[in-house]
Sequence to fold (299 residues):
Amino acid sequence: MRRAPAPGLLVLPPPSPLLLLLGLLALDRGCTAQYSSDLCSWKGSGLTHESHKKDVEQVYLRCAEGSIDWMYPTGALIVNLRPSIVSSSSKHWTVCIKPFKDSAGANIYLEKTGELKLLVQDGDHSPARVHCFSFEQGGLFVEATPQQDISRKITGFQYELINKGTASDLHMVSAPCRPCSDTEVLLAVCTSDFVVRGTIQNVINEEEQQDSIIDVSVNRIYRQKTKIFKPAEESGRWRGQIKTLLQCGVKPGEGDFLFMGHMHFGEARLGCAPRIKDFQRMYKEAKDKGLNPCEIGPD
Fold:
């Protein structure tokens, strides 16, 4: 229960995110550091703060992927993300965050030198929306919004660090609907989480999610790091589903493709998908010149 202010006591409104951040950067007081036990994910509670304080906590994570779970959010968090590879230059990495479906109680900002850019507004439940930015654009600043009942609020999101030096990852982030170049295709064969030859059986468009689900019938699996493609009970053929953006306009069609891509936030996302005849041409040309980055094996 909140006590009424004493007579004559001036009650100030809560500070704005920018003032709160600038006060932290200028004074570096009242700020506690929270280190994740596994360096990948962090869970914390605003109940550890005194209700009248606007504490700002520093969270340090050193993984390629993980999550933030902030129960009963009060005050603010500065989330410091870095790849586990110490020698990696930050300019080669992109950060992507995906808020949990029921995330609430805080705004998520991109902060650089005291300037804030709103990424996710409290109450915005756009399904499956992913926000990406480079380290050079700033870091994550998460500020709790004023709540009458914080006991029902949990702010959370998943994060991933994507190496922009990898052609297939760069293609997915910068231009996911553009056909891959020969160089991108040949490198994707070596670096993708899955590489399969197959046909498109069906495409399901999810308007709300802004995604298309590609139902693939597989003729051959060259690589899959997780069990995306499995034998179908009714036919015995291997089947699996790959997601891509709805705006790419994928449609069912005849012919074999080489599907390649990566796992992102637990889903198989399409990277490159050349027709098999086009891939065989570019693969042979590179092999004849000794320029193949890796071998895919006999067809």
About this structure: The chain has two domains: 17-163, 167-288. The CA atoms of residues 60 and 147 lie 26 Å apart. Residues 1-31 have pLDDT under 50 and may be disordered. The domain at 167-288 is CATH 2.40.50.120 (OB fold (Dihydrolipoamide Acetyltransferase, E2P)).
